[in-house]
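Query structure, 84 tokens:
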């Protein structure tokens, strides 16, 4: 969406996002998600809904990280290790 609508419009759209149960998620979406996408650290997908007035509203988000997670062998059971 960054390329499609521009950074200014995307920032306006994200500023409407609210997550009362987790303010860290809200802060990430509003203040860090664009920077993370530009730096290719993660990508945030927006779930939009069109209202009866033909207005698009943000109803959900999810973010995928581009960074691998290292898990020490000691934290994985033998059964899990064999299944991988």
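Result returned for the query:
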């Amino acid at each position: 969406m960054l390329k499609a609508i521009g950074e200014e419009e995307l920032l306006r759209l994200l500023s409407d996002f609210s997550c009362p149960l987790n303010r860290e998620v809200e802060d990430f979406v509003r203040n860090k998600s664009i920077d993370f996408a530009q730096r290719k650290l993660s990508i945030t997908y927006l779930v939009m809904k069109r209202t009866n007035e033909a207005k698009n509203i943000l109803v959900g988000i999810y973010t995928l990280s581009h960074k691998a997670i290292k898990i020490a062998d000691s934290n994985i059971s033998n059964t899990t290790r064999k299944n991988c």
